[in-house]
Design brief:
Blueprint: E1 8-10, E2 14-22, E3 27-38, E4 43-48, E5 56-59, E6 64-72, E7 78-87, E8 96-109
């Protein structure tokens, strides 16, 4: 169904980043990339359509392309921004069609999972094996 823009996200919530691109002139190749950055501007996660072999080719003026990246918000509590790029190749150094820092800003909260530190929610599981020591009649461990 149609989504909505969110400002606050719970850790682990499934998200969809939807980007609509209107093609204004013929383009031989188009790569869409996005990067999630923490409040200090450090990269948390980034990917583009070139890296997953999904770059589009031979786009014509007047076309509209809708991209939907789906991912869980497996990141820690805090403020994040999303940068978007449209380019010809993997690197934005070659031919940038558009670059938007702070295209989105959102806040991650954690009210459902164990409190953790850092930017990655790894959902670590824990198994503990506690072996009982043999106790003698006097109460001293043997």
């Amino acid at each position: 169904g149609e989504g909505r823009t969110v400002d606050v996200v719970e850790v682990g919530t499934p998200l969809v980043l939807q980007v609509t691109v209107n093609i204004n002139q013929d383009i031989p190749r188009l790569v869409l990339g996005f990067m999630i950055k923490d409040r200090m501007g450090q990269p948390v996660y980034g990917i583009n359509t070139h890296r997953i072999n999904r770059a589009l080719e031979d786009l014509r003026a007047g076309e509209q392309v809708v991209y939907r990246y789906a991912f869980p918000a497996n990141i820690g509590k805090g403020n994040y921004s999303v940068a978007l790029s449209l380019s010809r190749l993997d690197s934005h150094l070659d031919k940038n069609y558009e670059w938007r820092d702070f295209a989105l800003i959102f806040h991650v909260i954690n009210t459902r999972k164990a409190d953790f530190v850092g930017t990655a929610s790894l959902d670590a599981t824990l198994e503990i094996q506690r072996n009982a020591t043999h106790v003698s009649a006097e109460g001293a461990a043997c």
